[in-house]
Amino acid sequence: MYETLKFIHVMAVIAWFGGGIFLTALAGRAARTDTAALGTVVRLGGAMGPFFGAMGGIAFLAGIAMVLTTDGLDFEEAWITIGIVVYLVSAFLGGRVLGPRYERLGEAAAGGDAAATETARKAVVSITMVDLTLLTIAVAAMVFKWGA
Hints:
By secondary structure, the protein is an all-alpha fold. It has one domain (2-144). It has helices spanning 2-33, 35-69, 78-111, 114-144. The longest helix has 35 residues, at 35-69.
C-alpha cells in the first residue's frame, strides 16, 4: 500500500510542480513576444487552475494516507509537517491570490494596455516564484526527511 500511495503522491507532485514551472516559463516567453501571446498563455493558466488544484489535492491526500497507513510515519515529524503547511499555503496562494491576479492580467492583456499588463504580469510572477520556492522546500524536506 505504501509504495502505491508514494507513487501517486510523487506523480501528482511532478504534475503540479512541473506544470507550474512550465506555465511560468511559457508566460515569460510570451511576455517577450507580444501581448496577444501573453493573453493566450493567461487563458491557458486560467484553464489549468482546476488541474493544479486537483494535483495538489491528490498529492496531499496520498501523503496523508501514507502517514495514516504506515508504521513509523507520524504527523509530528518535521518533514511531514512542512509538506502539510506548504500544501495549505500553496492552495491558498493558487486559489485566493493567483487566481484573481491571473484574471487582472488577462483583462489587461485583452485590453491591450501594455503598462497594466506588465504590472499584472510582475505580480503573478512574484507570487508564482514564492509558491514554487515553497514547493521546492517541501520536496527537499521530504526527500531528505528533515527532522527524522
